Task: inverse folding
């Protein structure tokens, strides 16, 4: 080994390099083992997550500032147009909501007749998605509320159009969620038209889901709406998930090739809703 | 032995913080797979230039921070960055005299090894991802490296970082 004396910043030998790297590698492997097997390290994760939070805020700030700038410089004219549009929309939604109330009452009555438990209405809360990118191997997003606000692992996330994903890890002030389009995510769904139950699996493409377990003679067609079946326990039943966009039946294959497009615009959402539903209300 | 003053460490810490911000900065869906591994590149540079102050320990801590902000297995990036720093420190004298083209090739190999380690751990833990998620950062990182190298050298000599 060549020792270059006289230049302190050019040390030829770093002492105990091998030992240090081996120790740190062993520590890493131990950490991974315990992290994978049990959830003992949740508190460690949360503690470090709090330290990363300011950085996430800083990264998120320019995007937020840009939005604020856009909002505060819109002209009066545009704002009036927007208000008019929103009022019309609210009127329509309210009208629909009136019918919904009546339907809910009717549903509760019928359920009472059938001796089934009534469904409790789900609690929801709006969360904003932070402009922070996380895991490169997963389709996921970071939301700006965490365990401080009662978010828990496995919680369902929806937007105005349909199911977005579910929480996979909660920090104190933020939480990470996996999108339904992730390759490791599978969601129990049913066809709204006939109640046919199956599973929607993410493909890794943001605008496509796969329904791999439907036999060739399954009653499914293009345009069918898929809603959550509530069977997995994670998602409450009845939220729209996707619309079937392609059904290919190959006689030589045991299963039909069915793909669907998620109802929620997974890559465009900025605000989502988290659902608190008591698991005991999931009957079946 | 030279004494390092806190002010001399600041430039390095600043670059690491900026790197972390670039790492979690949102990118459009199509470009996301081609985000360079900023932290790996920074670790390679600083471990090569100042191996006594910024090497394996730093790499490990940064790896843990990455694991937390990514939500990956705790220790996954720490292990990969650790190995990266070890190899860089081991060959730092050699790497310093490499011409930029040869150094870029070395960086390509290091980044490929880094991604392979991540891929391997993902495989053991049962996380699946597309091939582009592994190769994208390697290619992007190698392309970015010459510019980053020149920029960081400038930062280093202008601020006398850690010297």
Result:
């Amino acid at each position: 080994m060549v020792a270059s004396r006289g230049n302190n910043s050019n040390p030829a030998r770093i002492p105990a390099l091998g030992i240090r790297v081996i120790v740190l590698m062993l520590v890493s492997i131990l950490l991974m083992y315990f992290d994978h097997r049990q959830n003992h390290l949740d508190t460690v994760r949360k503690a470090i997550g709090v330290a990363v939070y300011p950085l996430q805020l800083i990264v998120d700030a320019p995007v937020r500032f840009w939005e604020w700038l856009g909002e505060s410089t819109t002209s009066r004219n545009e704002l009036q147009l927007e208000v008019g549009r929103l009022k019309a929309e609210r009127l329509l939604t309210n009208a629909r909501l009136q019918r919904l109330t009546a339907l809910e009452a009717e549903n509760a009555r019928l359920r009472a007749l059938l001796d089934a438990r009534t469904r409790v209405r789900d609690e929801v809360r709006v969360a904003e998605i932070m402009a922070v990118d996380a895991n490169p191997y997963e389709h996921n997003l970071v939301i700006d509320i965490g365990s401080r606000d009662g978010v828990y692992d496995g919680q369902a996330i929806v937007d105005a159009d349909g199911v977005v994903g579910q929480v996979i890890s909660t920090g104190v002030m933020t939480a990470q969620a996996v999108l339904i389009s992730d390759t490791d995510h599978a969601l129990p769904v049913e066809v709204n038209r006939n109640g046919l139950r199956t599973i929607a699996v993410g493909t890794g493409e943001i605008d496509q889901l796969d329904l791999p377990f439907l036999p060739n003679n399954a009653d499914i067609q293009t345009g069918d709406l898929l809603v959550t079946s509530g069977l997995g326990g994670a998602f409450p039943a009845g939220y729209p998930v996707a619309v079937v966009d392609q059904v290919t039946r190959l006689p030589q294959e045991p299963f039909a090739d069915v793909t669907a497009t998620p109802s929620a615009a997974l890559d465009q959402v900025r605000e989502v809703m988290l659902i608190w539903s008591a698991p005991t209300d999931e009957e079946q | 032995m030279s004494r390092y003053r806190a002010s001399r460490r600041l430039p390095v810490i600043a670059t690491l913080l900026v790197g972390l911000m670039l790492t979690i900065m949102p990118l459009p869906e199509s470009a996301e797979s081609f985000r360079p591994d900023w932290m790996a590149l920074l670790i390679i540079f600083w471990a090569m230039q100042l191996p006594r102050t910024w090497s394996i320990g730093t790499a490990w801590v940064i790896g843990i921070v990455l694991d937390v902000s990514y939500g990956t297995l705790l220790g996954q990036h720490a292990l990969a960055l650790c190995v990266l720093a070890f190899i860089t420190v081991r060959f730092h004298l050699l790497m310093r005299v490499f011409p930029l083209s040869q150094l870029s090739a070395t960086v390509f190999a290091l980044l490929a090894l880094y991604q392979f380690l991540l891929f391997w751990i993902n495989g053991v833990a049962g996380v699946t991802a597309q091939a582009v998620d592994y190769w994208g950062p390697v290619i992007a990182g190698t392309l970015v490296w010459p510019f980053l190298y020149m920029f960081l050298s400038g930062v280093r000599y202008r601020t006398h970082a850690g010297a």
Q: What stands out?
A: Helices of chain B lie at 6-24, 38-49, 56-70, 76-90, 92-97, 100-125, 131-159. Chain B touches chain A through 52 residues (CB under 8 Å).
